[in-house]
Design a protein that fits this description.
With 142 residues, the chain is an all-alpha fold. The protein has 6 helices and no strands.
């Protein structure tokens, strides 16, 4: 991680100064630069390319489980947790479908609205004059 930072900033700062600040030796940095890429890193890079391909082929909707299943069907050998980790590390996230919202009231209509005959006066002077109902959900006894 420190060596990567030095590599990225070597046009801006001197390598020796950055090595002193980060507490690493310049020889270690140059050895890191000349070292070939590890087999695991090369395989991960190829796997990330395949993950991106599958993810894009399904319009970004597939998450790690589906991407893993697709890769397995194509013959790639990688565990689901590895696919998950690589997707998370490279910022590959599924686009979530918008959640269904129940809409019970349509306030934007041109239909006539029933008049408010009670006008919040719930007291009746004689029987069968005012009818009321309670639509709240009853509480269950514990």
């Amino acid at each position: 991680m420190k060596f990567r930072l030095i590599e990225d900033q070597r046009d801006t700062f001197k390598v020796r100064a950055m090595c002193d600040v980060l507490g690493v030796s310049p020889a270690g940095y140059y050895a890191w630069r000349s070292r070939p890429e590890s087999h695991r890193k090369a395989v991960n890079r190829a796997l990330v390319a395949e993950i991106r391909r599958v993810h894009a082929a399904h319009r970004g909707r597939y998450g790690a489980p589906r991407v893993h299943a697709t890769l397995r069907a194509e013959g790639h050998t990688a565990s689901r947790s590895r696919v998950e980790r690589l997707m998370r590390h490279h910022g590959i996230r599924p686009r979530m479908r918008r959640q269904f919202r129940v809409r019970t009231t349509d306030s934007h209509h041109d239909l006539p609205i029933a008049p408010n005959l009670l006008e919040q006066t719930f007291v009746a002077t004689r029987p069968n004059q005012v009818w009321l109902a309670d639509i709240s959900v009853p509480q269950q006894a514990a």
